[in-house]
Amino acid sequence: MASRFFRICACYVPRAVLFAALALAACDRKSPPEPAPADPSSSNEAAASPAPGGAPQSTASTVKRAPLPAGPHEIWKEFSGEKAFEHVRQQVEIGPRPSGSPGAEKARVLIESGLRAFGWQTERQTFTDTTPRGPVQFANVIGRFIPPGAKAARNDTQRAIVCSHYDTKRFSTISFVGASDGASSTGALLEMARTLALDPALAAQVELVFFDGEEAVVQFTETDGLYGSRHYAQQLRGSGRAAQFQFGILWDMIGDRDFNITLSSDSPPELTRAILAAADALQLRHHFRMFDRAIYDDHVPLNTIARIPAIDLIDFDYLYWHTADDTLERVGPEGLQKTAAVTLYHLRKTLK
Question: For residue 99, which of 189, 228, 255 has the smallest C-alpha distance?
Answer without folding.
Answer: 228
